[in-house]
Design goal:
InterPro entries: GMPPB_C (IPR056729), Mannose-1P_guanyltransferase (IPR050486), NTP_transferase_dom (IPR005835), Nucleotide-diphossugar_trans (IPR029044), Trimer_LpxA-like_sf (IPR011004). Keywords: Nucleotidyltransferase, Transferase. Belongs to the transferase hexapeptide repeat family. Pfam families: GMPPB_C (PF25087), NTP_transferase (PF00483). Helices cover 19% and strands 27% of the residues. It is an alpha/beta fold. The chain folds into two domains: 227 residues, Spore Coat Polysaccharide Biosynthesis Protein SpsA, Chain A; 104 residues, 3 Solenoid (UDP N-Acetylglucosamine Acyltransferase, domain 1). It is elongated and about 65 Å long. Bound molecules: guanosine-5'-triphosphate (GTP). The site of guanosine-5'-triphosphate has 22 residues, from strand 4 and helix 4.
Length: 368
């Protein structure tokens, strides 16, 4: 990402700053999130948060406050004051997690502008931020929500809007949702609305703040945008998002190489008789031996895939090892874990850091 002007064809958004929420424990991504918070997990060669920040920067938003809690210190250690990205980053730490709206309220004294874009720190999104802010200002909204249409809205709470795009309700998950549009985890708030959130206690933006605003007659606007959108909260979504970034299907200004079938990072050794495809990332100092096939997977630094092994739609943590002829499909292998030769790991199985599964030919479909 280059420091300087806004992205191609875009003017900088004026009078707008951003808050990114990065304090969650990321329990669904365990064991990967035991060693790093979800927004810091290596994704297409850089910590995931870099992609989010690159989108903000491309829209000309340069002042960003990060709401941190879980492993709070690692964000500042990596990103510092943000100058390398052409941004000004600030960090606010919650001693106890304050949930989403509590976290937004907790950074209020760092805000300077009238309009504040808020992003969940685990969303990969091509939303047009100019369009989102335009909708917000055009309707003089108190808050504007990016909404996405999904194939199966039963898995989400849905957000109906009227003919003018005004939000009419926040509905819990149901088997028969009346609309297919859901909250995409990205909002614009008027700053006084942020200041009206009760301070110092956990508050959920979806369960408390938005329904409360609606009940009080505030104007909540929906902004439907059909660009790329993915919540990287689960292992399956994480590998998909990473592969989409590597192949250029997901938007980012922070990809460290040109889009392609694979991203091979520094000093990784990939045998000429191995195949690495489907947007896989091979982390620094990894080894992929002859006959191995890695597809649609993310390998953190120093992972090792031995000869004739198959790794599909999976994440291998730092220093993890997959033995000769082993098969890992849809698996999450913790840092330093070892999958013995000829073992087979089925979809959804997770191996905890440091666990060693002996060579056996056994099939594992559960957590180990
Ligand atoms: P799971 O435990 O797997 O549900 O993940 P999570 O903890 O990240 O929760 P969730 O995906 O619902 O969070 C959405 C976004 O809000 C993520 O970017 C989180 O980092 C962030 N977030 C969630 N809870 C808090 C909190 O208490 N404080 C802060 N600062 N951010 C939070």
């Amino acid at each position: 990402m280059s420091a300087g002007s806004a992205g191609p064809g875009e003017s900088a958004l004026r009078g707008v700053e951003a808050v990114v929420l990065v304090g969650g424990r990321g329990t669904r991504l365990r064991p990967l999130t035991l060693s790093a918070p979800k927004p810091m997990l290596p994704t297409a060669g850089v910590p995931f948060l870099t992609h989010v920040l690159s989108r903000l920067r491309a829209a000309g938003i340069t002042h960003v406050v990060l709401g941190t809690s879980y492993q709070a210190e690692v964000f500042a250690e990596y990103f510092g004051d943000g100058a390398a990205l052409g941004m000004e980053l600030e960090y606010v730490v919650e001693q106890e997690p304050l949930d989403t709206a509590g976290a937004i309220r907790n950074v209020a004294d760092r805000l300077r502008e009238q309009d504040v874009v808020v992003f969940n720190g685990d969303i990969l999104s091509g939303v047009d931020l100019h369009g989102l802010v335009h909708t917000h200002r055009h309707h003089s909204a108190d808050a504007t929500l990016h909404l996405v249409k999904v194939d199966d809205p039963r898995r989400f709470g849905c957000v109906p809007t009227d003919a003018d795009g005004r939000v009419t309700a926040f509905l819990e998950k149901t088997d028969d949702p009346p609309v297919d549009q859901v909250n995409a985890g990205c909002y614009v708030f008027r700053r006084p609305v942020i200041e009206s959130i009760p301070p110092g206690r956990p508050v959920s933006v979806e369960r408390e703040t938005f329904p409360g605003l609606l009940a009080s007659g505030a104007r909540l606007q929906g902004h439907v945008d059909a660009s790329y959108w993915l919540d990287l909260g689960t292992p399956a979504a994480f590998v998909r998002g990473s592969a989409d970034l590597v192949r250029g299907a997901a938007p980012s200004e922070a990809l460290p190489a040109r889009p392609g079938e694979a991203l091979v990072l520094d000093r990784a050794e990939v045998s000429s008789e191995a195949s690495v495809t489907g947007g896989s990332t091979i982390g620094a100092d990894c080894v992929i031996e002859a006959g191995a096939a890695v597809t649609g997977s993310t390998l953190f630094a120093r992972a090792h895939v031995e000869a004739d092994a198959v790794v599909e739609r999976s994440v291998l943590g730092a220093g993890a090892r997959v033995g000769k002829g082993a098969v890992v499909r849809g698996g999450v292998i913790g840092d330093g874990a070892v999958i013995g030769a000829e073992c087979e790991l089925l979809d959804g199985a997770r191996v905890w850091p440091g666990v060693e599964l002996p060579p056996s030919g056994v099939r594992f479909s559960h957590d180990c």
